[in-house]
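Friendly challenge for the regulars: who can give me the structure tokens for this chain first? No prize, just bragging rights.
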Amino acid sequence: MPETETAPFLSNAQRRLLAFALGLFAVIAIVALLAFVLVVLGDLVGFFSGVLWPLAVACVLALILRPAVDLLEKRFNGRRTLAVVLLYAVFLLFVAGLLVTAIPPLVDQILDFIAFIPTLWAQAIAYVKVNYPSWVTTGERLTSYPAVTSMLDSLQAELSKAPSLVMPSLKAMSQGVASVFGFVAHLAIIPIYLFFFLLVRRDLTQSLPAHLPFLRPTVRDDIVFLVGEFVNIVVSFFRGQLLIGLIMGLLLAIGFSICGLKFGFFIGLTLGILNIIPYLGTIIGLAVTIPLAFFQPGGGLGLIGLVLMVYVIVQNIEGWFLTPKIMGERTGLHPVMIIVAIFFWGTAFKGLLGMILAIPLTAFFVTAWRFGKWRYFPANSTPTSHDTKVGA
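First reply, four minutes later:
Bragging rights claimed.
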């Protein structure tokens, strides 16, 4: 009898559809797992932020100052403790010089700026009433509607509760005082962490393979490489951004002061510090300096033009000279990706710590992705120096 061929349980199209469904389910499961891990990690970082941020600051400062300590150690014939103490003494002298020379006028400008805010607001309202009466008419028409009137009344009622909220109960006040003392305590312990971190002579990544004996040599080498790349990205980013932010702050302060912008010295230095987070200083600076230049006594469109010219000059100096000379190659991230990364990591880690670490973390993951493609899918990618070194 001729043998009858049994038909396959699934056709080719059905098998392809099933394979696609299983692959899609695996991708969704991996994404969900990563999201869950990220949420849990963000909650842990947010909960222990008071403990983690002093350690993170001290660790980053130690990595940045390590070359200076190594150089001083060679000058002192291997006496590293003496090198660290000398570095601390130089830093204290620098801080004392700032307290004597730069801090008093800076504090005066801060207090004058806070006192000038109501005047600036009143001048802006008067300008709108004189030059744009149609806007005032539109606002009056809107307030004539019952729904808008009810909303404004509710807002006024909430604002009327502000004094009672400003004067909290004794318990809340004690908690606020405790939180302030906690912040000061965490801030004061950073020099202690930093002192002991600087005393360590060896590179911690060199001893990392000895702590991973349970991994295969190839996997262990990949992990050590990626950890080293992450350390290099963090060091190069923060060392470069701190120096660039300081130079940009001084340039903006000098430029604003020459232009005649009120509180220009204080605003320029503040924007330079905020530039540690990319684009943050520029965005806040434009939102503050343009209205101030227009409404301050003697201001106007001419002063706005001068302020914008200062921004253009400083940004060109930063883009064409400071960043290439200080940081070398950029992180390789598109400006849109940088902005998304700042908001993403700031949300994930629930605070400023995530926004500050956004660029190093994103650059590290881009490096890990490119390295993984080159390492495990060599047929689909060609290794280049840019593929395996993003954050240098």
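The first helix runs from residue 12 to 47. Confidence is low (pLDDT under 50) at residues 161-177, 382-392. Your move, everyone else.
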